[in-house]
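Have a close read of this protein, sequence plus C-alpha cells, and explain what the C-alpha cells say about the fold. Thanks in advance:
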Amino acid sequence: MNVSVHIECLVLDGFDLSAGQRGDLRTSLRTSLAGAFAAAADPPYRAGVVDTLPAPAVPLDPGLPPRALGERLAQSLCTAISRPGPA
C-alpha cells in the first residue's frame, strides 16, 4: 500500500518559528506521519483528494519544541485521515 500526503499550507497561529525550527517541525511531522502509517496494519484511510481536512483540535503551547509540535500535529492529521470521507 502506498500513502501519499501533500500538505500545501499549514497555518499555526501564535507560533513564531525561526527557519531552523520550521525545518525541525517539517522533519518531525514527516517522520511522525510515516511512522503512524507504517504502524497501521490495514488502516481505513480516506482515499482521494480533499480541498480541506478538518482535524481534531490539538492543545498546543507556543513553547513546545518543534519536534513535539510535529508529533502532536501528526497524531491529529492521522485521526482526520482515518475518518471516512463523504459518501
